[in-house]
Design a protein that fits this description.
The chain contains 14 helices and 32 strands. With 618 residues, it is an alpha+beta fold. The radius of gyration is 25 Å and the shape is globular. The two termini are 40 Å apart. The protein binds alpha-D-galactopyranose.
């Protein structure tokens, strides 16, 4: 509709039609990504699930909290102590109030004829210096009620009494969690929207009330994403109301489903991007892959969540420290939440040293909030680069495979000129490596990750957009169009590629326009709008734009527009696939928000576009 409208009327791109506004391509003149809750950096702490599943109890939780203190992990930032599934007994039908399984949580036992309450439990955690987290489901029933049927701690009672999820009780339950009990964090799962279909075995066997799934396990394309989103929006609004000081974390758990990648960051503080992590290497890889190319969707207050740490179990136990270190390094680089899932009452030094690597924690908690971008992926080796505060950069070299692998780190990976000396400090061994220029080779053991910090910088005078992902908001993009030759790159839980990319096309090919590779920049589909927080720090913006050779069709034309605080600063002529890139520059003195809009005209799926070498100069 938009594309037709523009071709038909050759509308001036300054006069914005209502259709443009609707499609979200109209410049807003400001940064519109919301900021809510208390997740300026990725949440850190402990969660009961990976250690205990539903066999959780107060002694286990408090013991692990005490251990966080005694081991010094609390001082390093592990501050949330979170319950997961298993805490509830039932919902009282007379008034809908949730009842706690006090046999597991004795401090919640009603006193003097009062109500069962988690307040004493939460107060104790608070007194120990922690924040407290609780768990619920956005539907009527929870995950354990479908997936852990052998659990001794499932909700009990009539069909209605066992409906412990939020449906129909959002404000009541959130008020109970945040207002009355004093929790600071809630993880809101989604099995209630997925696993209770009419006629399903679980419903028949357990007598649950059936509901038509909004998340269709076997068919992501059938997810009713807008309805899923609406439910989470309602929860988020309720949390904000019941947490007037804003000191809350809202964790969305739809395992990458319901198109959460498009809305998670507008609604909550973190959103799961993959199915549950297990203690196998392949499972960790699947979780990591679900966030590795989602760099542009995270920022302070809003984080991709590849799930909790599984360090200490299976392929990550104390006999697999290489794997455990890799898992931790990847989570640190990806700005994933660092939630320990281990019974800390009995943790070996070797594992404590991993969770306690202060250098890696600092990388994860860096105040700029830039998630690492994937700079290279060749064979089994991936190179991840994360821009830190203070002119520092972290780089990780990761061997996914079970054989040794060589890796070459180049100045280009670090976005540096070939003559800049690069000094690296190894954040596991703490060794300083002698400076090199251009390229240095490393040997990685099976499953090994090397991670370094460097102070080498290009020039203080300018910054590439690629180096400031947390200051870029993908405000509008089309749902994806498959490329001409099919797609076998990294995909999300719904089988789609990663959306907007740093230093790559949306199909993860190098940014390439008319046969010319542009090493850095942002790649995404046209009919998109990016907001960039410039904050009046810069004088000049320059960019090399064009339609990426990876575009699915040669039919469409794209016009590139650059706005500063809502004013058009530069625009390209319409460009087609195969046409050479065009350089645009704009004066941006005093500009708070820069907007980069790519508007497609003509037929066919939206082309992939390159905002190449995009750079802000001071
Ligand atoms: C789902 C979630 C897990 C965990 C379990 C609890 O599977 O994804 O993280 O919370 O439910 O039942």
């Amino acid at each position: 509709m938009l594309r037709k409208l523009l071709t038909a009327s050759a509308a001036s791109l300054l006069a914005v039609s209502p259709a443009l506004a609707q499609d979200g391509l109209k410049p807003t003149g400001r940064w519109t990504a919301p900021r809510m809750g208390a997740a300026a950096t990725p949440p850190m702490g402990w969660n009961a699930w990976n250690a205990f599943r539903t066999e959780v109890d107060e002694a286990k939780v408090m013991g692990s909290a005490q251990a966080l203190r005694d081991t010094g992990l609390a001082r390093l930032g592990y501050r949330y102590v979170n319950l997961d599934d298993g805490w509830w007994l039932q919902r009282r039908t007379s008034d809908g109030r949730l009842q706690i399984r006090t046999a597991l949580f004795p401090s919640a036992t009603p006193k003097d004829g009062g109500e069962a309450s988690f307040k004493p439990f939460v107060d104790r955690l608070h007194a120990m210096g922690f924040k407290a987290g609780i768990y619920t489901d956005v539907g009527r029933n929870a995950c354990s009620q479908a997936w852990d049927l052998k659990s001794p701690n499932l909700p009990v009672g009539t069909v209605q009494e066992r409906e412990v999820g939020l449906e129909g009780h959002v404000d009541q339950d959130i008020g109970l969690f945040f207002g009355e009990w004093g929790f600071d964090y809630v993880k809101v799962d989604a099995c209630g929207l997925a696993d209770y279909a009419p006629g399903s075995a679980v419903v028949a066997k357990n007598g649950y009330r059936p509901s038509d799934p909004l998340i269709v396990r076997k068919d992501p394309a059938a997810d009713r994403s807008q309805a899923v989103r609406d439910l989470y929006v309602e929860v988020g609004q309720s949390i904000a109301r019941h947490s007037p000081d804003g000191d809350y974390v809202f964790s969305i758990c739809t395992w990458g489903r319901g198109d959460v990648r498009a809305w998670g960051g507008q609604v909550g503080n973190l959103w799961r991007t993959s199915p549950d992590i297990g203690s196998r290497w392949s499972s960790m890889l699947r979780s990591f892959d679900s966030v590795a190319t989602r760099t542009l969707y995270a920022r302070p207050g809003a984080w991709n969540d590849p799930d909790m740490l599984f360090i200490g179990a299976g392929d990550f136990d104390q006999t697999h420290l290489t794997e455990a270190r890799s898992h931790f390094t990847l989570w640190a680089m990806a700005n994933a939440p660092l939630l320990i899932g281990y019974d800390l009452r009995d943790a070996p030094r070797s594992l404590l040293d991993i969770w306690g690597n202060a250098d890696l924690i600092a990388i994860n908690q860096d105040p700029l909030g830039n998630q690492a971008a994937l700079a290279a992926h060749e064979g089994d080796v991936q190179i991840l680069v994360k821009t830190l505060s203070g002119g520092r950069t972290a780089v990780a070299l990761f061997n996914r495979g079970d054989k040794p692998a060589g890796a070459a780190l180049t100045s280009q990976h670090l976005r540096l000129a070939a003559d800049v000396p690069i000094a690296l400090r190894d954040l596991w061994s703490k060794a300083d490596l002698p400076p090199f220029k251009g390229e240095r080779r490393f040997e990685l053991g099976p499953h090994e990750t090397l991670v370094f910090e460097t102070r080498a910088t290009a020039s203080a005078g300018s910054v590439l957009l690629s180096e400031m992902p947390a200051r870029i908001h993908v405000a509008q993009e089309p749902t994806w169009a498959p490329p001409a030759d099919g797609f076998d790159g990294p995909a999300d839980a719904a089988g789609r590629p990663g959306g907007a990319q740093i230093d790559a096309s949306p199909y993860r090919t190098p940014l390439t326009v008319a046969g010319r590779t542009i090493p850095h920049g942002v790649g995404l589909l046209a009919d998109s709008r990016l907001e960039v927080r410039a904050e009046a720090e810069f004088k000049r913006f320059s960019v090399r734009v064009g339609v990426d050779d990876a575009s699915p069709s040669a039919l469409g034309e794209v016009r590139f527009l650059v706005y500063g605080d809502g004013r058009l600063l530069a625009r390209s002529k319409p460009l087609r696939r195969g046409q050479p890139p065009v350089d645009l520059t704009a004066r941006v003195q005093g500009v708070q928000t820069l907007e980069l809009v790519a508007v497609a005209h003509g037929e066919g799926p939206p082309p992939a576009v390159a905002w190449g070498a995009a750079k802000l100069a001071r």
